[in-house]
Amino acid sequence: MIISHLRKIFKVLSVRASKKYLLKYFITYFAVLIVPLIIGYAYYVNAYKIVYSDAINENNAILRQASSILEQRFGEADSMANQIVTNSNVNAFQGIHDPLRYPNSYSIIRTRNSLTNYNTSNKFVWNYFIFFNKSEMVMNNEISYTYEQFYKRYMSFKGIPYEKWYRTITENLCEGGLSEEIGAELYNYTPSGTVGMTIVTYSKPLISYGQNDGFVMLVINKKEISELLSSINTDNGGVTYIENNDGKIITYFSGEKCDIQAVQASVNKSFTGSENSSEISINGKKMMVNYIKTNNDGFKYVAVQSKKVVLEKANNLKVIIYVVLLISILLGTLISYYMAKRSAKPLQDILNNIQISEISEDAFKNIKYTLSELGNNNRNLKRTIDEQIPILKTTFLTRLINGEFNSQEEIGKIARCIRLNFKNSVYCTVIFKFDTDVNNYDTLELTIVNSFKQLLREILGRVVPDALICDLDEQQLVMLVVYPASQKGQLNPYIEDMAARLKQEMPKNLFESLLISCGNIVDQLNDIPISFENAKLAFKINSANRHSNILWYAGTGNYTVNYYFPTDLQTKLINNVKAGDKGAVKSILNLLFNKNFIDSNLSTSLHKLFIYELLGIIIKLWNQIGFDEKTYNYIISNTDNIDKYSELKQIKIITDSYYMLCEIINGQSDKQYLNTNNQIIEYINEFYHDCNISLASIASQFNMNESYLSYIFKQQSGIKLSSYIENLRIQKAKELLRSTALPISEIAVKTGYFSTNTFCRAFKRVTGINATTFRGSNA
Length: 779
What we know:
This protein is an alpha+beta fold. The chain is built from 28 helices and 18 strands. The strands form three sheets. Strands 1, 2, 3, 4, 5, 6, 7 and 8 form an eight-stranded antiparallel β-sheet that branches. A five-stranded antiparallel β-sheet has the order 10-9-13-12-11, with helices on both faces.
């Protein structure tokens, strides 16, 4: 198939040998396409080796990651077991022989209540059980059984009678550490009844007063371990297993049934050291082995895979590369012929159309000569266009203000052709009109008006050199102002400055008859017709009552000329504050804020004046009522630099200040302050361990304003409320560190901290040393 296509192509080339350009292009394109294929094949050989190496490295990475995670998980399990073993109630219970006899039965409840539910914080350990050999009781935070009850009603080892299970529990597991995987049966675990589970157990002996008093057994579901190694393919006789430092296989995973002991023996014979990869033969089958031995616990993590499975990607790559190479050669030949034909035909057509008296043998020289002629013609055309640019700009502006363009893209394209740069700009349309009635000019004398317009054009050309200007009618000119978008707020002053410079350049009587109307500022070129229409609308609305030569379009976005705060409302506000009527003050303030911030659009200066007038009323009230200077200074410090805050923050500061005045005026005496402060301290002393306790929650509890509560607490206690809470928590933590062996994480929770890190930072900040050092120095 491929050979037939190649023959056909070469036949065409030989038949049409007269078309030498076709042959030249074909050879060039084919060489360009075939060289990368040769280079690509060389890279393939290297890529095959890389894929082979990556397959091995990937398994090593999985084993390293799994070993690191499992080492950490086993460490966590050991930490959990240590916490349980050191539990004082567990230690007390292991000395009891008959816990079901009164009054020992209460010790079961007390011990269970003291145990932690680790399921919420550790998903690796499925559950844990404490075996007390003296009382033959099994217990955790949820259950308590005798050994026989536990075996018959909760969990037993699959296929093992009670007597053997009893010996296993009382003898083997008490040695501690990880055991080999065991099949377990769970009774009544689900509504359907018994459930089978393969488990790995981690046991730790209890603190012994004699011998073999009991142990803690942590149960780990085999699935938790298998998930970490699930990405290793164990098809076609592969197996992954974990071996402890005694040579016992803790657990293994295989895609099919295998003799794990035989596999282990073959691996151990071939490997030493902490990490290695190699090929071995098991039952005549070539296998790839990845082997890692951890330094801390001495565990071995071994992945044994069929070499065929490991190199599956590399073999697939090999097949793909060969297929791609063959297809590429075929397509390369076809594409080379197509591209050669496509390139040669236009070249031949160009040469046929060149009208030159003497044509050189070199086609490209003929093309170069023709292009030189075209370049000369293009320069002459460009020079002609440059002479027409002013007329083109005038026409462009006329079409622009009349909305004759279809899209923003069309406007931009034409603007670039006539060398206008509208990038990152805003726009405003300005109309200039001569009001001939001002100086009693005869409006029918068009010659006079045209002279005025011509003079205005010349002056605008000096004042605004790059301005776009066109005639609107006999009396009016239109100018488009283009201004940087980043300085949009300065556009109006720019136009006013332009008008001032016109006044300097023009005769006084002529400038007095000139009206300047400005439309709204727009961000898009296709919105310029709107700005133009609004400029005309400004003439209609403002020309009869004008106070200057510039008429601005106000539109709907005009600023309110004054803020709302009538005198009668000021009087009501002052009187209600004096009366301590917090509800009435709240209503008046809400009305003022709605009127001035929501219903109106105040300028920045009016906004400031309104805020400062509200602050001025507070000063008036201080002079009239005479509340203490500390309160006055506190309010003033809160309102200092208020204009730098956001609108919502300003409203909150003003509202809180007025509410504080109402609460002070309502008769809060020093004795009431002290009583309230004592209640707050009692509340904090009782609930300091609640991590959600804060100024806001305490204010809500006592139905007080936050700022006012903070103020009276500081005044009565001499310390900030947040500092008091922190100092109290640290004091309680120091007592627990001295008197108990509780972990620091648990002390952090008991003293109201979300996390151990937050507690440690607070402890170091208050005491100057960390919690561990403090406990060691007070041991």
